């Protein structure tokens, strides 16, 4: 039986009634420390939601945007309830969706290309969380056929996953971890990657993605693919760079991440097919909400920092971050 689809939230920037329904996670055992770290309590949350909604209603360039608590808490929690940081991220998030429609628009699990990439196991969320409650995703990047797909397809799959789990309360608070498996990468894959595209991608990871990135793990990286890793990581901000790790294989990765939550093919308990099936069902349940995101609107033709030209200039003029060059022993 297909999962029951969720209703589509209101997109009016100043609705008569706001959807205030949201949850605070009660597990795992470390959740109290997590909530303290992001400075969350009921009073702070209600105050910030009210302030952010008032800001959206009066925003001169936002014309349509979700204002429900589940959506806005993505931004507040990822920025530890800093109103300024959350509002800036929201502006850039809305701008990114318009500037890069091939990444962020039509995130439909029924789309033939997204469905195929899901079915082959290119990217999917794992069924279980890590010890701190983080959402864990696994990307077998070499499964992206360079004769048929581009980096845009990869970015679109990642956007699908992030949006599908965007309302997940525990993921909002505890954050997310992603594993990149490069086992199947070949020389042909180098044709779909360039430093300019990696810089563009990192710009949005740094400024427009409402998620607490708690770890990026690269595993099974052939020496010829190290430049891709070095290129992307060098453009990421220092906080995210410090949460990056390189592992030779899954045995070494198991020293940093509980192997039991991984697919059976990598030493875990359940086969990859079960994880993929659960991911597909989750995306199907949120399908209508993801498609409705395309109706949010922000005007980018002005001189603000989130304008069309400012965002593109930011990317073109971006400097390479400082990071030690990763090498395989």
Automatic annotation (TrEMBL):
A GO MF label: phosphatidylinositol bisphosphate binding
SUPFAM superfamilies documented for this protein: CRAL/TRIO domain (SSF52087), CRAL/TRIO N-terminal domain (SSF46938)
InterPro entries listed in its UniProt record: CRAL-TRIO_dom, CRAL-TRIO_dom_sf, CRAL/TRIO_N_dom_sf
Pfam families documented for this protein: CRAL_TRIO
Superkingdom as given in the UniProt entry: Eukaryota
PROSITE patterns the UniProt entry points to: CRAL_TRIO
Annotated Gene Ontology cellular component terms: membrane
Gene3D superfamilies per the UniProt record, alphabetical: Alpha-tocopherol transfer, CRAL-TRIO lipid binding domain, N-terminal domain of phosphatidylinositol transfer protein sec14p
Ranges where the CRAL-TRIO domain occurs: 110-274
Record-given protein name: CRAL-TRIO domain-containing protein
Organism: Anopheles farauti
